[in-house]
Amino acid sequence: MVLFFPVVLKELYERGRNYRWPRPKTCPKCGAYIVRGHGFVTAIFDGFNQPLFLKRYRCPNCRCVIRVRPCGYFPRFQSPIGVIRQSMAAKEEKGRWLTGLSRTRQAHWWRALKRRIVAYFGNAFHETMAHGFDRLQALRQVPVSRAI
Fold it and tell me: Could you give the 3-state DSSP secondary structure of residue 72?
């Protein structure tokens, strides 16, 4: 299970394992009031040359493992949501990818977004890709995920 908290990535980078993560008050799965630390896991984020340590917690009742992640990122993605959306809008409006990001990664997002728009809204979707991105996000979907 992933919980999102506001995190300053630069501070997380500087402090490493000593970063003071907020502890969940209850287990999101079973509601138990005791949630214990369960070590760290590393994750790579754009703009940092080494992986950052993300805190994990575990519920002793239901044994659910809770991974804490910064707000503003989709699960399993290392680029911020705003950058991904900006990339999709730039491709549609200007026909070019954003500079400074891998073209391969941006093309991967583009193909996944097109596929998800067709899967959720059908071939009759005639709005912009950016609008499709927003509509999928409103449905609590990751618009550029390969999984359907």
Answer: coil
What is the average per-residue pLDDT within 122-129?
90
DSSP for 89-146, written as a single string: HHHHHHS-PPTTS-HHHHHHHHHHHHHHHHHHH-TT--S-HHHHHHHHHHTT--TT-S
Is residue 16 within a helix (H) or strand (E), and if so which, with residue range? none
| Other CB atoms within 10 Å distance of the CB of residue 32 | 14
Q: What is the DSSP letter of 29?
A: T
pLDDT band at 71 (very low <50, low <70, confident <90, very high): very high
Predicted confidence (pLDDT) per residue in 72-91, tens digit? 999 889 999 999 999 999 99
pLDDT tens readout for residues 31-67? 999 999 999 999 999 989 999 999 999 999 999 999 9
Q: Which of 58, 68, 69, 70 is nearest to 32 (CA)?
A: 58
Contact (Cβ atoms closer than 8 angstroms) between residue 58 and residue 66: yes
Strand partners, 70: 5
